[in-house]
Amino acid sequence: MLKNWLKIAFINYRKNWLSTLINILGLSVGLCVFLLIFIHWQDEKSYEQWIPGKENIYLVENKISDFGTMVVSSYPELAVSKEKFPEIEDYTIANIWSNYKVRLISGSKSAFVSSCRASDSFFDFFPLEKVAGSYKDAISDKTKITISEDTAKMLFGDEYKNCIGKTITQDIPNSIPLVITAVYRNPEQNSVFKPGFIMKNEGLDNKNDSNLQWTNYSYIGYFRLKPGTDIASLEKKLSDLMAEQEKITTLKRGQKYDGKKKAEIFLTPVGKMKLDAKSEGIEKGDKKSIMILLSLSALILLLSGINLINLKTAQASQRAKEVGVRKAVGSTRSKLVLQFLLETFMICFAAFIIALVLIELFLPVYNKFLNKEIKLNNPSVFIYSGLLLIVFSLISGLIPSFYLSNFKPINTLKGNFSRSRSGVWLRNSILMLQLIISSFFMICALVIHSQVNYMMNKDLGFKGDQVIQIQFKKTDGQNDYNYKKYIRLKNEISKISGVTDITGSLNSIGLGITNASSVQNAADTTQSIQNVLLGAIDYNYFKFYKMKFVAGRDLDLRFASDTITGAVANETFIKKMGWSKNQALGKEVYPDWEKRKKYKIIGVLKDFYFNGVDKPVEPVLFFNYDRNQAKQNMSNIQIKLDKNDINGTLNRIKEFWTTKAEPGYPYDFEFVDKQFAKTFEKFQKQKTLFTMLNAAVLVIALSGLFALSSLLIEQQLRDVAIKKTLGADEKTIIWDLTKRFLTICTIAVLISMPFGYYAMNEWLKDFAYRIDMPVWPYALSLILLLILTFAVVSFKAYRATKINLVKYLKYE
């Protein structure tokens, strides 16, 4: 029986080779797209799965007034909460920033590696595999350090396991010898906990009162909770405690407390923080984009299944007599269903094998696109994809199987199935669903394309072309060390041929806010702005970037007051203060970063986009960098190059940097305009991915439409022959054969429009600056789909007008 079923299946495959090929290729593409995105999702979910007891360890996040949700906490928040709430067994601190690296030195060898500044209990929470030494009191004071196996190999070679008790130093001013207490092995699994070394957080050794301040958000904290803890209840208690302390601190400062903006604390399981952190998290993944892409890839897979169902049901008339004969000789309906399901499974299995081959081919390109190293070695992926294959085969095979097995022998043997209305209704419904999905994708792709173009073409408020930025990796001295280094580098680099100008700033365009604070109105201290960017800049900063003033003037070295109290505010700052641009001139404010010292506003700068055009412009107060502690934190130099010799100038700067400025350190730079472009790189990638998905959808949909129209038109060739015999011209025949498809296409686009509008409106909510929802993508999707549908169907319809009339009328 099975052999007979297989023989029948291959006969039908060969007979309908075009539709079979389209089914296999369509399913292969659909499965490939879905599995690639599914693999990415599984890779992101796999972070921190190595941590024992991860279900009871939670990342602490804070939503504080105008600062938004932050991944950092204050020391009292962590320490006091542990004592106050019995649900909290312990806490730890682990400040880990993969981009912040330090050079460790041992004799003539060195290692430039990332760091983790932690509290004593770090290894109790995150027990990294120990290679040598002991974790007991391993980082109990600032003279001790633990290093990773890779770092130990760079510093001590093959004898790295014998380095316990040896000393190394950090290449920073006044570095003290650090005793190695343990060597650990970083997890091979996905994890954000892969530092080159771990030592005690310096802030925990401070003798000042900063660690007593509830609003000193400096630490990434984790709680270990008792099993069965009510997380929502604990979050509320923590939030109430933090809100109370925030109120006390605000009133002590003489500021007005807004009870409507109370603090909130969120607890996110460490095993889910990669995707579910409420803040930017630690190397947080883009869960929303992944879920959107996963949903869209599922639609593509559905589209492939629709093709399969549609083509199978369209072939029903060819199989009708076969079914009638089988039933007439005693075959049961269940056996017919199993036979047709087997045929469907064979197509799906062939498509699955091809999809796996395509994944192997495209995975390196996909990894490069995502800047990841995903490998196809996760057994769960094969298990899930195998289950998907079975479920997909059942779902896509059951409809045509039951449909075909339901034929009545008396009708099929008479040959009148082709006139059954139920067959036409089912095919039209499935075709409409296919076109709805195609139209939805086209609308979304056009809207995304418009938004991304809007961001890329927006006036940024600055000119960053031919400007490079180099971050310092090494400092020069104890007092004002970055300031002194900046001055020295500025003087020396200015002598390099091809350098036309140099400037510097505390915060860098396109790299996000690293320093911000609150500012009070000196005339009314209850009026304040939170999260004001520290605009510590060199004097030529505004001219360097060709920024424009809307009122007042630039900082001027000729005026002593400008160097002491002068400040320039941007438009957002004065709007939040409630001033007009002219009212702001001469106003005095108290910045929180310089206690009770007045800054006088002498100019208002036109807003420029500092942190990406998808985010609102932050309030900024600009001042000369050598005024206060800001000069100790200057960490970059910005260099404008002569456009006639960019490559030559870059080579000369590199030679100077690697031989004189920072020998022994890796050299890297970034063009400022490209650095800023990275702020909307995510959305450019979304645009690219959506364009590719849209192309895949159209190829699958139109190829399915071509195969379906071919089958249906072939079933009407006798009618075409009769019409031609009666004198109908080609245009009339083509229109009669295509108008039904065009009607279905129009209805499908109209149905897809509200779904496309809702999806794109939700997507656009992520942008502080967004386009108004355009009408043209909806109209264009209708026009394009009508044109494509007509082109695909009319081609086959035109071929139908060239038939041999005798062949189809000789038996009439």
From TrEMBL:
Highest rank taxon of the organism: Bacteria
TM annotation in the entry: 21-41, 290-311, 336-362, 382-404, 425-448, 689-713, 741-760, 775-798
Signal peptide residue numbers: none
Residue ranges of domain ABC3 transporter permease C-terminal in the record: 295-408, 694-804
Keywords: Cell membrane, Membrane, Transmembrane, Transmembrane helix
Alphabetical list of Pfam families matching this protein: FtsX, MacB_PCD
InterPro entries associated with the record: ABC3_permease_C, MacB_PCD, Macrolide_Exporter_MacB
Domain MacB-like periplasmic core: 20-240, 431-645
Keyword Membrane in record: yes
Topology within the bilayer: Multi-pass membrane protein
UniProt-annotated location(s): Cell membrane
PANTHER family, A to Z: ABC-TYPE MACROLIDE FAMILY EXPORT SYSTEM PERMEASE COMPONENT 2, MEMBRANE COMPONENT OF TRANSPORTER-RELATED
Name of the protein this chain belongs to: ABC transport system permease protein
Lineage, top ranks: Bacteria, Pseudomonadati, Bacteroidota, Flavobacteriia, Flavobacteriales
